[in-house]
Amino acid sequence: MSKQNILQWIKSNETDFTEMAKKIWENPQIAYEESYASNLQASKLKEEGFRIQASIGGFSTAFVAEYGSGKPIIGIIGEYDALPGLSQAVKTVQEQVEKDGPGHGCGHNLLGTAGVEAVVVLKKAMEKYKLAGTIRYYGCPAEEVLSGKTYMAKEGVFDDLDCALTWHPWTSNMVVNMSMQAMVSIKFHFKGIPAHAASSPHAGRSALDAVELMNVGTNYLREHVIEGTRIHYVITNGGLAPNIVPEHATVWYYLRAATKEQVEDILRRVKKVAKGAALMTETELRSEIEAFPYDTLPNEALNDLMYENMKLAAPLVFTVEEKDFAQDLVKTIDSNIVKIAQQSNNELLPVTYQNDKQTIGKTLAGSTDVGDVSWITPVGTIMTTCAPVGVQLHSWQATASFGTSIGFKGMHLAAQTMALSAYDLLLNKDHVLERIKEEFYLSTKDKPYVAGIPENGKLQLI
């Protein structure tokens, strides 16, 4: 099975995988609850002859599917969790399928399915040519809460990989030479003393006061952190009633920066602010780390390989109907947001390919737990056109796009690119794997991966 045969097989069988992506889009489930997508993909891979390792890290929706034996070991990373509150029909007006229900506003119905598509055709190529090596599909839960791959990494399932490939739905076709931010998701729990807020407030100690003082202090900290830092929070518990001094209150923070070391330093300072708030209010304080993904570490040699194979894949062609849908959808978005997006790409539905070397060393806003994997093994990443330029991820417009043929076409391009690239890696022509691994070694030397989520559980006194 040559590269052309791989492309022909995907073309002949793409309807099956379009149907898989559509079914997952129609049955969205949030982080750690993705039983529908996980079972659908694992069942398909088991039918195709893959060995299934289930319930990785104790999570029923995490699995690894493997075929072959020996080296090299090539991984393809999949995701399938949806986002809360983003239910949306495939329409150019906002219309929920389920009131306040979840929806695939990040395109993970496409992301994981392309990985399944790629490993299935790779298995057929390995059988036909009796290729040595191992291919794996990683069914990863909970990317949206940025912890699924961290828990899987703690189980060691990525440790013996020679490299891994992944992708993400987007509004252009490109290799991702930029990094993404490291991030910590942490909850601060304050415990006070309840009392009647009118007749005996002096007897109470307000946990809500502690939360609000902490937020004031953290907001003053924003002036004194490194450029590009992001600090977001929500109060998830502010008490039960105004006439009761709140005994319990919780604030949930995301802290982001370009590197894990920078995030660790910001976290150190925010914890001091939290301690100060507890001291001022005479309340008790505990913290709980929910997620702590690394920044992503791009691998230029692996990205270059994926770019060359993207150019070999069947080009994207969009119909008049798809372009009309895209145009109508973009009209629902703030024109200023669309103008900003079009500064980097003025095509409505981009079909050209990009490998922008000027972005090497730069950091994208946003985070992903793929970062953890990228510090364990070399990871190559691409994006493909699955929505019109101007559509923002985590929006109802994105959910609508990722349920259309626009999204499915981008998904098949990603599957082709990953399958062709993995095929090259199995053959290891011109010792490409050695170059990829040498770059990884130089980037990670003396920087061993250590999972950010504590070994002894999440809840800590601080």
Q: Please, could you describe this protein's structure?
A:
The chain is α/β, with parallel strands linked by helices and 462 residues long. The protein folds into two domains: 3-180 and 295-444, Aminopeptidase, CATH 3.40.630; 182-291, 2-Layer Sandwich (Alpha-Beta Plaits), CATH 3.30.70.360. The protein is 39% helix and 19% strand. The protein contains 13 helices and 15 strands. An eight-stranded mixed sheet has the order 1-2-4-3-5-14-6-12, with helices on both faces. The protein has a five-stranded antiparallel sheet with strand order 9-10-8-11-15, with helices on one face. Strand 3 (73-79), helix 3 and strand 4 form a beta-alpha-beta unit. The chain is globular and about 80 Å long. The N and C termini lie far apart (58 Å). The mean pLDDT is 96.
CATH superfamily assignment of the largest domain?
Zn peptidases
From the alpha carbons, calculate the radius of gyration and give it in angstroms.
Answer: 23 Å
Separation, N- and C-terminal Cα atoms: 58 Å
Mind summarizing the main beta sheet? 8 strands, mixed
CATH architecture label name of the largest domain: 3-Layer(aba) Sandwich
Mean pLDDT: 96
What is the 3D form? globular
Q: Please tell me the total number of domains.
A: 2
CATH T-level topology of the largest domain: Aminopeptidase
State the strand order across the main sheet: 1-2-4-3-5-14-6-12
Tell me which oligomeric state these chains represent: single chain
Number of DSSP helical runs: 13
